[in-house]
Each structure stands twice: as structure tokens, then as C-alpha cells.
């Protein structure tokens, strides 16, 4: 028997993955080699993985060095820790823990990038046949901002969410609803960020049921199975009931409710032969679900309302340029009567773009689905004028939009970059271990790169600590002294920028932050000189706050 030949897309995906990962790793090797990862969330994830590999219980997601005494309960499940933790455990005896960690933070995003390319090619194949698959993979390799969560060091979990959403969409297109539901449910075990993309996919599925009475029950069964298995295997010891930013009780309620709708619709199909009755039933169930979520899991609705976007026009161009082009092209195809699977791409892209108005980073899902859709456009132009083809490739390349956005955006303040540089982190690591009151961005790096504690950081997983730091910097110096004692703060740090790395809401004219930025140091603080860094740091005198002992 002749052995099966490998699919032609696999070698292309492998070549693109190796070349681009090597290029990105080389560009950022100075930071990667020092385990200074691209985002504060990645540093927190590295700290979580370390705690687990050092013996912390699988179900204990508490970050003991974050937040008030006792730590902060992180809401993301251990699912994102499995592969990095496995790599570290296997390689540590061979090359030492540090090199094993470097290998893990490079390999895991590289693997996800490879899967992302394969899934993009497969999605494009469902739209335009085998010929469009290589073009889709090439565009997917350039699809900013989606690729930003798949670069070396990006281990926070968004990359895994991205490929799972792509797998869910592929399952929907292939009619493998159970697998699609399992993928969609697994995505939510990692956090609530993909909810808009999942909502877009479910709208497409519901429209297909209303029009053609397509089967939908399997999708709900998959969602329910993922929710129940996740609860059995991944439920943390501390399970917050007041947040919906990760695998929490309110999100589980939402998953169970969303999963239950589809079998109900499937059972009603033969009793509702008229499309208008099916549309009414779907609308009624949707409204009922929103009402139940409002009462049973309010954080899953109010949490989105509380978010705000700080996007500039430059960032909006960089993040939304590619999805908007894909959205326009997809609408044009629909108006020409192209196949309905395009509707799935349009629904996910549109829902993700709407969510990006609130939180710009959610455009990653829109960019990922833009690549296979725009590959159809590129292939239709194949063989035409070379200038037209080149212009189309540039229009459909996400990195081009990223470059355009960077032209419109002011150059980053090097002092802000120095706030979390590896030289600064190394200097901070040489200080006696203590608790820091510092900007949230710096706090994530403190947890991941040193043995210090940080009162702030961790986003919505650490509401008490973040509020305490906000109150601390807004307080007058005399009031802040009392709070330093209350929260056992040992060090105060600000970035060497006009705002100190703090949001404007923390810069009250008579507040501690304003005093420190203006060079007025209270007598209960003493400046600390960091070798190799200009980060302003002050030590709290022992009379004000005993702090933690090394």
C-alpha cells in the first residue's frame, strides 16, 4: 500500500512557523533570554506555572504574592498551564529550570501558531477549495493583531483561545456540531474574552436553524459536556461568584444556559414547520436567557458594561484595519449570492469588532477570521495585473495595517519601556524581599521576575489590591502613611514618566503620587538607588510599615 502523502499545507505551515518564530525570537532574544515576557499577563502566567511545578496544588490558583495578605484568586483555569508546565517538568532535569522555562515560553506559542496556520488553511478550503489554502496561511501569518498573541513569550492564554475558536468554526462548517460545542465550551474555561466571537457563531447557527431547520442539538451537548467536565477537573479551590472574567461560577451558569438552548431548539424543529414560528421561538429563548443571566449571573453582563477602551486612532487603525477590509469584502460577496458559510465569518468578525469598541484587544478574533476570507479575494485576482495583485496582498496583510497605525502613533516613551526593562527587574530582584505599591503594569513583572509581592496587578482577579493601591496613591501623604502600615507596604515605585505609569484618576493634586512625581518625598519614605535603572523607588521606613521579612 502506498503511504499517504502529507497534506501540502503542513510543510508550508511548518516552514512559516519555524522562520517567523526564529525571526521574532531573535528580535526579542534580549528580553526572552532574561525571561522578561511581552505582557504583564504573560509574566503572571509564568509565575502561576512556576508555582504549580514547584508543588502548588493543581486546584489552587491563588497567587500568594499578589494582592492583600492571603493572595489573590486567579480566575483562569489550569488549562493554559498544562503544556508550559509539562515542558518545564520534562526539560528541567536536562537543561536546568531557567533554560527549560525559556524553551517553554518559545515552544508553546510556536505550537499554537502552527495550529493557527493549519486551521486558517482549512477554513479557507471550506470557502474556496484547496487553491485558497496556501494564500490563507500566508495571510494568517501576517494577520495582526491575531499573531500578536502567538509570538514567543505570549503564554497568557489568548493564543489558545484563538485556535479553539477557529477549531469551533471549522467544526460548525463541517457539521461536526459536538466537536464544535466542545471547542467552544473549552474556550470559555480559559476566560470570557471570546464570548463575542462565540455569540457571533451562535447567531449564524441559529439563523441556519431558522432558515433550513439545520441540526443544532449537538452544539449544545458539546457546550454542556465541556462545562461539566471542566467543573469536574478544573474547578479551583476558590471559585469567585462576583466575577465573570475567567472560569467562575457566573460563567459556568452562562455556559450551562447557552448549552441547554440548542437541544431545546432541536427538539422543537419538527413542531415548528413555519420559519416565522422558529424565528419567534429562537428570539423568545434568547430573551429568556438574557433575563436569567441578568438575575443568576449578573457579572457576565455588568462586567462588559464596566469595561472602557483607551484606544487611540492609531491603535484603532492597527487593530481594526484588516477586519474592516474583510467585513467589506464579505458583505460584497453576500450581496452577490455567494455560499452561506461566508456568513459565519462575517458574524464572528462583526461581533468581535463591536466588542473591540469596548476592549480593543478583542479584535484578535476578527483578524484571525479575516485571513481565510480575504484569501478568496487574493485568489480571484490571481493571474491579473501584477500591480493589482501586489496592492491586494498589501491591503490584506495585517502587518501593513499595524505599520500604518505605528506611523500615526507617537513614538513610545523610552522611560515607560525602562519601567519594566530586564535591567530594572534585575535591580529590583536584588532588593530585600517585600511588598510593592506600584503601577499595575510593573506589578505583573514584579510577580513574574522577582520574589517580591505586589499589592496591585492581576486585573479583575485582584479587585481589593487594585483598589488599595488606587486609594494609596490618591491619599494625602499623611493618610498614605497609615495605609502603608495597614497593607504592610515595604516599597513604593513609580515609572520615570510624567504620570509615573499611573492612570489620571490616581493623580490627585494633593495625593501621594503627585507629591512624589513633583520631587516632594514624605519623611516616612527614603529613596532607593537601583543600579542600572532610573526607576524611582522608595523604601517605607520601618516605623511606618514593618512589611514582610525576606
From TrEMBL:
<feature type="transmembrane region" description="Helical">
    <location>
        <begin position="136"/>
        <end position="157"/>
    </location>
</feature>
<feature type="transmembrane region" description="Helical">
    <location>
        <begin position="316"/>
        <end position="334"/>
    </location>
</feature>
<feature type="transmembrane region" description="Helical">
    <location>
        <begin position="246"/>
        <end position="265"/>
    </location>
</feature>
<keyword id="KW-0812">Transmembrane</keyword>
<protein>
    <recommendedName>
        <fullName>4-amino-4-deoxy-L-arabinose transferase</fullName>
    </recommendedName>
</protein>
<keyword id="KW-0472">Membrane</keyword>
<feature type="transmembrane region" description="Helical">
    <location>
        <begin position="277"/>
        <end position="296"/>
    </location>
</feature>
<feature type="transmembrane region" description="Helical">
    <location>
        <begin position="102"/>
        <end position="124"/>
    </location>
</feature>
<feature type="transmembrane region" description="Helical">
    <location>
        <begin position="177"/>
        <end position="204"/>
    </location>
</feature>
<feature type="transmembrane region" description="Helical">
    <location>
        <begin position="346"/>
        <end position="374"/>
    </location>
</feature>
<feature type="transmembrane region" description="Helical">
    <location>
        <begin position="216"/>
        <end position="234"/>
    </location>
</feature>
<keyword id="KW-1133">Transmembrane helix</keyword>
